[in-house]
Design goal:
- By secondary structure, the chain is of the alpha+beta class.
- It has 3 helices and 8 strands.
- The chain is globular, with a radius of gyration of 14 Å.
- The protein starts with a helix and ends with a strand.
- The mean pLDDT is about 95.
């Protein structure tokens, strides 16, 4: 697999469209960081790390609204292995005029765009969630 981040985002996108409660993704430090950001911003309820003989998996617990509506309407990869997208703190996008989030890989770990603005740090723009 060449892009585990895109694989994780695709699994989450497909699971929310099919109204699944959980979805399993491959375990890596960046994927755990993305799951941390999604949990901190309220898009998922949490995640568990499942150990197996290989690298392990992350079981992401998806979150829905009070009437069953999806909270993640759009989740897309911004930076790909063939085209990296780096942004400074001033160039970070504000999805849905601040209601969505941008996930950024920085020198301080994987952070949301709001956290990047408060800490005044930029980095690689991984994904945009609306």
């Amino acid at each position: 697999m060449t892009d585990p981040i895109a694989d994780m985002l695709t699994r989450i996108r497909n699971a929310t469209r099919n109204r699944h409660k959980t979805v399993n993704c491959l375990n890596s430090r960046v994927c755990r960081g993305i799951a941390d950001v999604l949990k901190a911003e309220g898009y998922i309820t949490g995640y568990d790390v499942i150990e197996d003989a290989r690298q392990g998996q992350i079981r992401v617990k998806l979150k829905y609204g009070p009437r069953g509506e999806t909270l993640i309407h759009k989740i897309e990869r911004a930076s790909t292995p063939g085209r990296r997208v780096y942004r400074g703190v001033e160039g970070l996008p504000k999805p849905l005029q601040g209601l969505g989030i941008a996930i950024v890989s920085t020198s301080r770990g994987v952070l949301s765009d709001r956290t990047c603005r408060t800490e005044r740090v930029g980095g690689e723009l991984l994904a945009v969630v609306e």
